């Protein structure tokens, strides 16, 4: 209101007929109100997140193209789980990948000794999507279609009438002097090549009264091309698939294989297999009238993956940042959370426990009880996006627990252990926020509604590590286009960075199980 009064004209001295002209925008706009400036101040971390999201259409791209590249640029050395970890040193930084869709990065404190704790943030790299079937070739009604299967609990109606493409990884057969080898390559077709069209309301008069009813088997089938256009291209088009490629692979449309082969820089018959998924071609953006929101797919949970990774890198980048650290700072980004985490690269696998064990053992092989000691000194922040209060569905939130946009990270509680938070772990995470003047919120699901879950209870029960479940608030979770607040990206990053830098000192003052 102060800003409005300052820049509004004095209407007491203006003739009424002149008022309309004063409503036009002036040649030079007045300075922005304070709220606009605060949105701009939060933009650097958010802009970096936008780049991360746009480069990560799949979990493979998030790990291989983004996380791995950023870690290497920050001086992290890559390890292999297939080799011995004999050369680990205090003050050094490392990472490893599993299946190219899970990544674990860690920085060893200069004062670390075997048996000291690990300070971990865990998140996940996968999101609900439509994945191509092993045999995706569908032809009906004069159309070439692509068979897909649903992955996770997506809001599938949001995938209709979107400009879609494919991305993922392919296994390519390569000939060399020594014979034949098989390479893993990431691919992404940039232009929109598919669409799942809705049925016109004129052909479904029950839509207005009964709503959209989706059969995921028969309705979620994207259109790739028309059969007649495809046949014409094969006859006269110079870029059509050759005869040998078409004869050797009958599982997928040759047209689709041709597009994928072009991205993989190979011939269609050199593609031995692939894991591909549909992706929206609309880029992630900072938007809203005040530029306060992020509109994007895959915020759940690439947003938390990005913030935790950036916090780890920035908390270990200065020359002496690990000099006084006695623990190990770690980020673990898992695949397959959206389908239960039960895979070799999910949080239900031994991936994180293997890392803790191998790091501990590399500094002391004589005492077999040091790992158990280290786990009891460790702490896990399970970071997964949270449900912001929806203005059009306010009754879906419990009255005293309504997380707001711009309100900071949300601590998730559930008495039935759907979240792993307890009083001690909530206090530690909240205390770090209070030390830095960061906002913090709480969430409890209504008693008459079911509660989702995260990797937190899986790792807490499987490893035995103290855990707090948290997440940044968002709307439209599991839609093809989600939204969150720019301010909360900064809040999350600053909170995570402070956690890495201050947990060791704070935990030494918490007296539990002594």
UniProtKB/TrEMBL annotation:
<keyword id="KW-0482">Metalloprotease</keyword>
<keyword id="KW-0645">Protease</keyword>
<dbReference type="GO" id="GO:0008237">
    <property type="term" value="F:metallopeptidase activity"/>
</dbReference>
<keyword id="KW-0031">Aminopeptidase</keyword>
<dbReference type="InterPro" id="IPR023358">
    <property type="entry name" value="Peptidase_M18_dom2"/>
</dbReference>
<dbReference type="GO" id="GO:0006508">
    <property type="term" value="P:proteolysis"/>
</dbReference>
<keyword id="KW-0378">Hydrolase</keyword>
<keyword id="KW-0479">Metal-binding</keyword>
<dbReference type="GO" id="GO:0005737">
    <property type="term" value="C:cytoplasm"/>
</dbReference>
<dbReference type="GO" id="GO:0004177">
    <property type="term" value="F:aminopeptidase activity"/>
</dbReference>
<dbReference type="InterPro" id="IPR001948">
    <property type="entry name" value="Peptidase_M18"/>
</dbReference>
<keyword id="KW-0862">Zinc</keyword>
<dbReference type="GO" id="GO:0008270">
    <property type="term" value="F:zinc ion binding"/>
</dbReference>
<protein>
    <recommendedName>
        <fullName>Aspartyl aminopeptidase</fullName>
    </recommendedName>
</protein>
<dbReference type="Pfam" id="PF02127">
    <property type="entry name" value="Peptidase_M18"/>
</dbReference>
<comment type="similarity">
    <text>Belongs to the peptidase M18 family.</text>
</comment>
């Amino acid at each position: 209101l102060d800003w409005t009064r300052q820049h509004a004209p004095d209407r007491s001295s203006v003739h009424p007929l002149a008022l309309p002209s004063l409503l036009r925008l002036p040649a030079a706009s007045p300075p922005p109100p304070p709220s606009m400036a605060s949105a701009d101040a939060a933009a650097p971390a958010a802009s970096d997140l936008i780049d991360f999201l746009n480069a990560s259409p799949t979990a493979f791209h998030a790990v291989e193209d983004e996380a791995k590249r950023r870690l290497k640029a920050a001086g992290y050395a890559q390890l292999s789980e297939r080799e011995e970890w004999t050369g680990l040193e205090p003050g050094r930084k490392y990472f490893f990948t599993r299946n190219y869709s899970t990544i674990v990065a860690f920085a060893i404190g200069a004062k670390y000794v075997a048996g000291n704790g690990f300070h971990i943030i865990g998140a996940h790299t996968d999101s609900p999507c439509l994945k191509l079937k092993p045999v995706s070739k569908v032809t009906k009604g004069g159309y070439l279609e692509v068979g897909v299967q649903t992955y996770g609990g997506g809001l599938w109606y949001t995938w209709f009438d979107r400009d879609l493409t494919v991305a993922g990884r392919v296994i390519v057969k390569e000939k060399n002097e020594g014979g034949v080898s098989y390479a893993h390559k990431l691919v992404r077709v940039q232009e929109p090549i598919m669409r799942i069209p809705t049925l016109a309301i004129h052909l479904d008069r029950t839509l207005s009264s009964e709503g959209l009813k989706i059969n995921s088997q028969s309705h979620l089938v994207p259109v790739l091309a028309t059969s007649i256009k495809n046949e014409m291209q094969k006859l006269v088009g110079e870029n059509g698939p050759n005869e040998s490629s078409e004869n050797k692979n009958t599982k997928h449309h040759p047209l689709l294989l041709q597009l994928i082969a072009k991205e993989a820089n190979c011939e269609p018959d050199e593609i031995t297999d692939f894991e591909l998924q549909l992706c929206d071609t609309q880029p992630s953006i900072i938007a809203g009238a005040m530029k306060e929101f992020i509109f994007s797919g895959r915020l759940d949970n690439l947003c938390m993956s990005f913030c935790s990774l950036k916090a780890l890198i920035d908390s270990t980048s200065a020359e002496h940042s690990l000099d006084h650290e006695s623990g190990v700072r770690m980020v673990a980004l898992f695949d397959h959370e959206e389908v239960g985490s039960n895979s070799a690269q999910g949080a239900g696998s031994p991936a994180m426990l293997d890392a803790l064990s191998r790091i501990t053992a590399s500094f002391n092989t004589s005492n077999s009880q040091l790992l158990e000691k280290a786990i009891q000194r460790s702490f896990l922040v399970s970071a997964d996006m949270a449900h912001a209060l929806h203005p059009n569905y306010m009754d879906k939130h419990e009255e005293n627990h309504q997380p707001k946009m711009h309100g900071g990270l949300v601590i998730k509680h559930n008495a039935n252990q759907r979240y792993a938070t307890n009083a001690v772990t909530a206090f530690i995470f909240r205390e770090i926020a209070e030390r830095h003047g960061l906002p913090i919120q709480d969430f409890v699901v209504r008693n008459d509604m079911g509660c989702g879950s995260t990797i937190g209870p899986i790792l807490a029960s499987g490893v035995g590590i103290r855990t707090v479940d948290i997440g940044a608030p968002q709307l439209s979770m599991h839609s093809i286009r989600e939204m969150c607040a720019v301010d909360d990206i900064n809040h999350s990053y600053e909170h995570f960075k402070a956690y890495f830098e201050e947990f060791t000192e704070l935990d030494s003052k918490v007296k539990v199980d002594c």
